[in-house]
Structure formats: structure tokens, C-alpha cells
Write a structure and sequence with these properties.
The two termini are 31 Å apart. The radius of gyration is 17 Å and the shape is elongated. It contains 5 helices and no strands. It has one domain (2-135). The chain has helices spanning 2-16, 30-36, 41-71, 77-106, 111-123.
Length: 138
């Protein structure tokens, strides 16, 4: 199970060539996140809600990206460079959405869950997303 999660933590990083250690909220394997981190019922519900939010946010950006690729002039090198710059802005926005929602879930983690996340990220040579742990401590 942990080997699968290690792969899941790496996959978004491979897709975006990013060094951050994404959980992959909203992906096909939310259930694995629930199992590996032993999420509570409340955390599981938040995971589902935030996954749906990410889908809506990124669907809009994906539509913009498809439209850009379909409609942007591509006859000159300058056109392609401009299109590339616009596409990068859209991809960066998608990454920001992923990071923001991962931070939300990570902020609900107890110490044991968060330490497991850090350990898994370290093992796969990714940088954990740090959250202010004192917010949830009572």
C-alpha cells in the first residue's frame, strides 16, 4: 500500500516536472490517500469536497488550454513563443490549485499523518508541502 502511495506522490510531480510532493487530491486514487494516511471521516469528506473543487477549477483552465492550442496563431516562431507563454501561465495556475488544496488537507493532518507524509516525500526525493502545524494543535 505504501509503495503505491509513493508512486501516487511522484506521479503529479512527473506530470508537472515539479519538486513539490503533491498528494494528488481529486485523482483516481483518493481512496488510497484515505487508506494510507488513515483519514478520519471528516478528513475523508473534506478530501472529496476539495477534489471536486479542484476538478471544477482545473476543468476551466483545461478548457482555456484546449482553446488556446486550437485557436492561437502558430504560423511563426513568435506566435508559438507567445502561445507557449500563455500555456505556461495556465499550467502554473493548475499547479497552484493542486498545491492550495493539498495544503488544505495537510493542515487537517494530525502529527502522525503529517510525519508519514514527510517520510514518504523524503523517500521519493520530493519536497514536502509545509503547513503551519500550530493552527490545528490544541
Amino acid at each position: 500500500m505504501i509503495k503505491i502511495l509513493r508512486f501516487l506522490l511522484v506521479l503529479p510531480g512527473l506530470l508537472f516536472s515539479q519538486e513539490d510532493c503533491y498528494l494528488g487530491i481529486g485523482g483516481r486514487d483518493d481512496q488510497r490517500i484515505v487508506q494510507v494516511f488513515q483519514l478520519t471521516e471528516a478528513q475523508t469528506e473534506q478530501l472529496r469536497n476539495w477534489g471536486a473543487e479542484l476538478k471544477v477549477r482545473n476543468e476551466y483552465l483545461e478548457n482555456q488550454a484546449h482553446s488556446l492550442l486550437k485557436n492561437h496563431p502558430q504560423s511563426t516562431t513568435e506566435d508559438i513563443v507567445k502561445m507557449s507563454d500563455k500555456f505556461k501561465v495556465l499550467m502554473d495556475s493548475m499547479k497552484s490549485n493542486m498545491r492550495m488544496l493539498d495544503q488544505r488537507l495537510l493542515s487537517t493532518f494530525n502529527e502522525e499523518q503529517y510525519n508519514l507524509y514527510i517520510m514518504l516525500c523524503t523517500e521519493i526525493l520530493r519536497s514536502p508541502i509545509y503547513v503551519n502545524r500550530s493552527v490545528n494543535e490544541k
